[in-house]
């Protein structure tokens, strides 16, 4: 912990790397809390805490019980949980979100402690669409604003709405996808912040202001106030922002962006990440420059959180909050209690091509990394995978006496290589490295899979182009998740290492 500002210090941007899109932030006294979308993964909505706005530590997941989050096997990848808004009002934290799974829709949760437990959902049948925002006016009336951009009065304790949704403002003429609305009272005005242009390369942030929370709204003459469209900036797709004040009263914006790499058109593999950028106010409007890749030391003390351990020994009774599963996580299929100090996975789906496969992973957060795990496959088959969705994943798996590497890209499923190994536990290895540039078609990275011989020597089985596990190839809204799986019987994992490596 630093007790004084560090004039020569910088903090890397993104402030929360890896697949952490659609950030929403709120400040309570000297503490900051932030949430992100989680899509088809369970538990849902990661919750982060910070004391300095730059260093963030995950403290839980808001939706960690089946009664809060229903994701059936018919929920497609990039379906599920979209765009939460986090706010604090009247001594409680409030969380509004959309579950796009058929028949669910918009929901509202609350808690006195953002680390949990959070309430069961209050369903909002009178709130249409996606991206529900919450704000309260001076009279205590709660307003919910949604993508489109429309607004309805809401009782947050019951979910009752009053009157039909009313259109407010739809951003720049001709701009597609006005969404991610956030409404704030700042000074003499109510400010309506939105994303527009779609969440790809044309993404941007625009703003309007009015004298009441219902408008009418006057658009900022400098809209969009933030976009990297048409630039060669290393951060692209900037948008879906939220405003917050720093400890010294300065203003900041959290937003999503991506880091494309490789040749043309550029491939981003980590998903949409959470960035931070400073905001200045001029003549009643926010001015936002380009999002920096490094943030200079702020005017207040830096408070780094705990350093995440490289190894998880699975020695706790419950998995740490960074671990996520596909759609659900029944205890009979995933537990650390069956064999002390091991993670036990019991198969359900027969491969990673299937939506009900038993998979437990963590987000890839660095462009280069090394991952290792020790697996005992004596009672089944399972392994180590890099997943984007059911049709885009690479993996290395072990069964008793054999290790093999597989690739699924679109309709093509291939066994890349296999080797016989001695019976018993084996260490599986993934190395993600930067691909040296060759021409405009060079992919962003190379994924090399292998295992460790009994003497510790690395034995590679194959290396694959990382572009095929990118959003530009697969589509969707998520990023890579690296994890463990079982496809036959029962498999046990002694430990899991994840470590950033040199480019």
TrEMBL record:
<keyword id="KW-0326">Glycosidase</keyword>
<dbReference type="InterPro" id="IPR051795">
    <property type="entry name" value="Glycosyl_Hydrlase_43"/>
</dbReference>
<dbReference type="InterPro" id="IPR041542">
    <property type="entry name" value="GH43_C2"/>
</dbReference>
<dbReference type="Pfam" id="PF04616">
    <property type="entry name" value="Glyco_hydro_43"/>
</dbReference>
<dbReference type="InterPro" id="IPR013320">
    <property type="entry name" value="ConA-like_dom_sf"/>
</dbReference>
<keyword id="KW-0378">Hydrolase</keyword>
<protein>
    <submittedName>
        <fullName>Glycoside hydrolase family 43 protein</fullName>
    </submittedName>
</protein>
<feature type="domain" description="Beta-xylosidase C-terminal Concanavalin A-like">
    <location>
        <begin position="311"/>
        <end position="499"/>
    </location>
</feature>
<dbReference type="Pfam" id="PF17851">
    <property type="entry name" value="GH43_C2"/>
</dbReference>
<dbReference type="GO" id="GO:0016787">
    <property type="term" value="F:hydrolase activity"/>
</dbReference>
<dbReference type="InterPro" id="IPR006710">
    <property type="entry name" value="Glyco_hydro_43"/>
</dbReference>
<dbReference type="InterPro" id="IPR023296">
    <property type="entry name" value="Glyco_hydro_beta-prop_sf"/>
</dbReference>
<comment type="similarity">
    <text>Belongs to the glycosyl hydrolase 43 family.</text>
</comment>
């Amino acid at each position: 912990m630093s007790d004084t500002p560090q004039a020569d210090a910088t903090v890397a941007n993104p402030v929360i790397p890896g697949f952490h899109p659609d950030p929403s932030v709120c400040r309570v006294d000297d503490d900051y809390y932030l949430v992100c979308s989680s899509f088809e993964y369970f538990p849902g909505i990661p919750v982060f805490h910070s004391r300095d706005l730059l260093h963030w530590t995950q403290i839980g997941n808001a939706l960690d019980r089946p009664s809060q989050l229903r994701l059936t096997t018919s929920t497609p990848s990039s379906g599920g949980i979209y765009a939460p808004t986090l706010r604090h009002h009247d001594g409680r934290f409030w969380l509004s979100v959309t579950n796009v799974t058929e028949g669910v829709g918009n929901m509202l949760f609350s808690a006195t402690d953002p680390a949990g437990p959070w309430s069961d959902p209050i369903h909002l049948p009178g709130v249409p669409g996606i991206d529900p925002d919450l704000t309260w006016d001076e009279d205590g009336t709660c307003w919910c604003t949604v993508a489109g951009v429309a607004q309805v009065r809401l009782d947050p304790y019951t979910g009752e709405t009053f009157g039909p949704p009313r259109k407010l403002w739809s951003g720049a003429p001709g701009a597609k996808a006005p969404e991610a609305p956030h409404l704030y009272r700042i000074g003499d005005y109510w400010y309506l912040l939105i994303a527009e242009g779609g969440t790809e390369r044309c993404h941007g942030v625009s703003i309007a202001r009015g004298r009441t929370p219902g408008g009418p709204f006057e658009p900022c003459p400098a809209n969009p106030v933030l976009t990297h469209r048409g630039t060669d900036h290393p951060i692209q797709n900037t948008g879906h922002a939220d405003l917050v004040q720093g400890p010294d009263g300065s203003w900041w914006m959290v937003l999503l962006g991506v880091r494309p790499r490789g040749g043309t058109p550029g491939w981003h593999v980590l998903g949409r990440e959470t960035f931070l950028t400073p905001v200045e106010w001029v003549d009643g409007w926010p001015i936002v420059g380009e999002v920096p890749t490094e943030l200079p030391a702020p005017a207040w003390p830096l408070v780094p959180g705990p350093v995440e351990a490289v190894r998880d020994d699975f020695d706790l009774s419950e998995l740490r909050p960074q671990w996520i599963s596909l759609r659900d996580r029944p205890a009979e299929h995933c537990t650390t209690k069956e064999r002390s100090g091991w993670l036990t996975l019991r198969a359900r789906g027969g491969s990673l091509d299937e939506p009900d496969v038993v998979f437990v992973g963590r987000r890839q957060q660095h462009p280069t990394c090394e991952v290792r795990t020790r697996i005992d496959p004596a009672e089944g088959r399972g392994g180590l995978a890099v997943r984007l969705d059911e049709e885009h994943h690479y993996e290395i798996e072990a069964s008793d006496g054999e290790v093999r590497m597989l690739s699924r890209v679109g309709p093509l499923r291939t066994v890349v290589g296999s080797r016989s190994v001695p019976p018993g536990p084996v260490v599986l290895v993934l190395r993600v490295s930067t691909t040296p540039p060759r021409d405009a078609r060079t992919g962003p990275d190379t994924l090399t899979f292998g295992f460790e011989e009994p003497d510790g020597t690395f034995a590679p089985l194959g290396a694959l182009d990382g572009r095929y596990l990118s959003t530009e190839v697969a589509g969707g809204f998520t990023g890579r998740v690296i994890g463990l799986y079982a496809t036959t019987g029962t498999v046990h994992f002694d430990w899991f290492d994840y470590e950033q490596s040199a480019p």
